[in-house]
Amino acid sequence: MTKIVEMRDPTLTAGELSVRDVEVIRQIWHDGWGYTGFVQHPRPKSGLVFICSEIEGTFSVLGGETLIARQGDVFYAPRGCRYSVSFRGGRRESRMDSYTVHFNLYDEAGEELLFSNRPVILTNDPACRFSAGAEALWRAVNRAELSANRFKVSTKFFSLLDEVIDEVRVRDAGLYPIRAGVEALCNEWDQNEHMSRYAELCGVCESYFYLLFKNWAGMSPVEYRNRIRMTSAATLLCNTDLTVREIAATVGFDDPFYFSRAFRRTFGIPPLQYRKGGGKDERALPPGAT
């Protein structure tokens, strides 16, 4: 049996949870590197990817959306999903770019737990404080004198998971005052509505809406809308035969040339080149990367 649980559920960490088959991989990426192993073969375990340097990962979900993870983001992929990932940046050899934690989580009745039935970016911590917990878990899993101690591994895993859950709950609390505006913006992302409309829905002035939105999302509402537009455009490029002009209009851009420039700023390559590469870089790392 498998069930989906909400990370913000206050009872989540109070139950008798158990974790099995924990693996942790430390990764240094180079610009243009990626991984496509989970396209042909679905993910065998759930995974958490902690982005801890100034790289940018583009996670292209098979048959779904494209998610962009930046420094401080925590990307979650449930067992059984299919996706590819490519990275921009990653030029300095002296630092760690990401930690990937593979695991299977169960409740007290032995049912498998998933936090979502699809890949999702759980939260963003600009201070990257999760890196220390991920490093501690890596040491517990990979050092010979500790790896046999399953209690040590479980303790480190749940300590890290608890930090992520706390951050998700704080982020959700920050969403509450602007929920009406955020939901409307997410439903109208392909329209060029002025942000004052969404502020009015929340009963606040536009400048205060911007402030609350940035505190919640880590970016302005305009940047947030553009991220949705760009990820949607990337999906259309890979899964349809629409022209660049048609895709630009579909995602809310009147000017296809401005759309192409914006797309290149986001993904590092122009739309047609992105389509030619299938949305991913074929230079993949060995299996098990992310």
Question: Could you walk me through the main structural features you see in this protein, from its secondary elements to its overall organization?
Answer:
The protein is α+β, with helices and mostly antiparallel strands and 290 residues long. The chain folds into 2 domains: 2-170, Jelly Rolls (Sandwich); 188-276, Homeodomain-like (Arc Repressor Mutant, subunit A, Orthogonal Bundle). Helices cover 41% and strands 20% of the residues. The chain has helices spanning 37-40, 130-142, 144-147, 150-175, 179-187, 195-202, 206-217, 221-239, 244-250, 256-267, 271-276; strands spanning 2-4, 18-27, 34-35, 46-51, 56-61, 66-69, 73-77, 83-88, 98-106, 112-114, 120-124. Helix 2 (130-142) packs antiparallel against helix 4 (150-175), helix 4 runs antiparallel to helix 7 and helix 6 crosses helix 7 (206-217). The longest helix is centred in the middle third of the chain and has 26 residues, at 150-175. It is globular. The two termini are 25 Å apart. Residues 280-288 have low confidence and may be disordered.
Topology:
Layout: E1 2-4, E2 18-27, E3 34-35, H1 37-40, E4 46-51, E5 56-61, E6 66-69, E7 73-77, E8 83-88, E9 98-106, E10 112-114, E11 120-124, H2 130-142, H3 144-147, H4 150-175, H5 179-187, H6 195-202, H7 206-217, H8 221-239, H9 244-250, H10 256-267, H11 271-276
Parallel strand pairs: 1-10
Antiparallel strand pairs: 2-9, 3-8, 4-7, 4-9, 5-6, 5-8, 7-11
Helix pairs in contact: 2-4, 4-7, 5-6, 6-7, 9-10
